[in-house]
Amino acid sequence: DFEGIDVHWAHWDEPPPKAILQAAERGKVVTNAPSWFTMTPLKEAYIYDEYSLKAANNGGDDDEIAVMRGEIWENCIDWCFKCDLDIPENRTLDDNYNLLRPTKTCPTCGRMMGFIPKAGIDEYLKTLDPEEREAREKGLWKHLSGLVYKMLDRDVHICEDFTVPRDWMKIEGIDPHDARASCYLFAAVAPEEIEIYDKPRNRIYVYDYLLLKDPDLDSTVRKIRMKREEHGYSKPKWIILDSKYGVREDREGKTWEGELRKRGLGHIILSQSRPGDVELGHKVVREYVSHHYSVLTGQSKPGILFMDRCKGKGGPIHHLFNYQYNPKNDKPLEEFKDFADIVRYICMEEPVFRSQASEKKLIDMVKARQEKAYAVRRRGTM
What are the C-alpha distances in Å from 285 to residues 1, 119, 348? Predict the structure, then answer.
């Protein structure tokens, strides 16, 4: 029904389902008409991802989109929420019990006053659950109020692409799947010291990723090695693998762990998967996304950062910034959990930086001790 007309403009007073919006947008092709959305952002989260985040005035790069967010307090008649100023004369009623509104602008900041009394807003907000309240009171998307990592900020946790120094410790992670693309993450542990729960650790930079849709494992391994070559190294310190899926046998008795080891991809460790580890992992990730001061850089930055190249639909940034709890059971929803799971696996390991030079020195020292012990044993048996 929405595809049958050509329109000169469209106005949505409620967020439309995506299929209906696309049908209606088809009718704008000839006229290149504008669309307006005025809504309480309670549902249809695709509008946030595909429009709000792309708006030029909201950090995006699409000059054809603009987004404006308003709070219910902007429509308050007798209290300025910006100045915390009570305006009692605006509670004066006429003979028909209508508010007279003699003061039309805030005496302090000059903001235009609205038409709803503060007492009415307060009573209304008492009826709302916390997540719906943020949407109706402040214009924040309801799905964002259920985010696992609410503190993530695109201006803070995303950095420009740069070449990862060769001596930084490379680590990788994989969340394998059969029915959908397997997710592969590339990260580096920098010498920048931080503290995680009062223990010395190092800052992590997530710098690239792969969505592996080809079921052929040889092809998968080839793509991983090509990505490593692109970034100037051959093997990581370790690869962390989803333990539950990684050791599950298929009909032929094969496992992801066994097949990856057979192909010599690198040192593989299994993720922590004891009862309660998921929520514990969320707490560890929240600690990493907090700011930590580093003497080496003289700056306070998050303990984990994502390079700009990790953007893109279905990528790490898309997943992490939309990773949310299911309101019915408080468990994470499946839609954005794959890369979020890998980040959780990595953070739970709390990796500590070791340079290639220090690793070589340690290996040489161990070898020297082994050779000395062997020589002593030989002398003792002669």
Answer: 47, 40, 8
